[in-house]
Amino acid sequence: MFNISPVSQDNVFRKRRVARLSGMIADHVAAKGHCRVLDMGGTTGFWSVWRDVIDFSHVSVTCVNLAEVRQDETGSLPVKAQVGNACAMPEFEDNSFDVVFSNSVIEHVGLWPNKLAFAREARRLAPSYLIQTPNFWFPIDPHARFPFLHWLPRPVIYRIHMSMRTGFYPKTSDIDEAMTSTEDADMLDRKQMAHLFPDADIEAERFMLLTKSLLAVRHKVR
């Protein structure tokens, strides 16, 4: 359940999320004979892990990532990587895809205007989308694996990053590196997600009665 790998199947929340996505894809395939998926901020390696959960026989997946990422070995899977900015994708016309998917990305795109732009692109590019993000009010920072870290003032956070390794973040050697880690993720709460995705259902992934993550889900089949 607590495996921190971004592509591991050993996480019940991620399994349920992908199963939900698989059902959305299947609905589009049933209606149209195929499904075009856009993974905003994702990598090809993620999809390789789930080849036994998702039926790729009538599916194509495009992964758009700001950084140039390696095209991981996907075998015969119809998955490709493309460099691009998920906050602005003029290369794609409206409804170029059937399903937009994003897993723990929107909290990393920067300040609020970028989050607004990211959400607009997700809503514009497909009739269905599933956007997941960690919940700000869950007490453990999912990136640093450190209780309450994201609730602390930034002058305290960057000093913690300079003093020790925290989850995904290595111990930093100077303030520049520490601030980069500090500002890497800016998590959202339910009200913010509802504002960003007003046409979606905002759902909760719960752990021990606490909301661990939030999902914005809109599912329309045309």
Description:
- The protein is α/β, with parallel strands linked by helices.
- 30% of the residues lie in helices and 23% in strands.
- It has helices spanning 12-32, 44-49, 112-125, 154-163, 175-182, 190-196; strands at 35-40, 59-65, 79-83, 99-103, 128-134, 140-141, 146-147, 201-207, 210-218.
- The strands form 2 sheets. It has a 7-stranded mixed sheet with strand order 3-2-1-4-5-9-8. The protein has a two-stranded antiparallel ribbon with strand order 6-7.
- α4 crosses α5 (175-182).
- The N and C termini lie far apart (35 Å).
- Residues 1-7 have low confidence and may be disordered.
Keywords:
222 residues; two-stranded antiparallel sheet; disordered N terminus
Layout of secondary structure:
Layout: H1 12-32, E1 35-40, H2 44-49, E2 59-65, E3 79-83, E4 99-103, H3 112-125, E5 128-134, E6 140-141, E7 146-147, H4 154-163, H5 175-182, H6 190-196, E8 201-207, E9 210-218
Parallel strand pairs: 1-2, 1-4, 2-3, 4-5
Antiparallel strand pairs: 5-9, 6-7, 8-9
What's the arrangement of strands in the largest beta sheet? 3-2-1-4-5-9-8
How large, in whole angstroms, is the Cα Rg?
17 Å
Give the overall shape, derived from the CA principal axes.
globular
Low-confidence stretches: 1-7
How much helix is in the residues? 25-40%
Quaternary state reads: single chain
Number of helices: 6
Q: Could you give a short account of the major beta sheet?
A: 7 strands, mixed
Terminus-to-terminus distance: 35 Å
Mean pLDDT: 91
What is the string of helix and strand elements?
Answer: HEHEEEHEEEHHHEE
The structural class is alpha/beta
| Overall number of strands | 9
Measured by DSSP, the beta-strand proportion falls in 15-25%
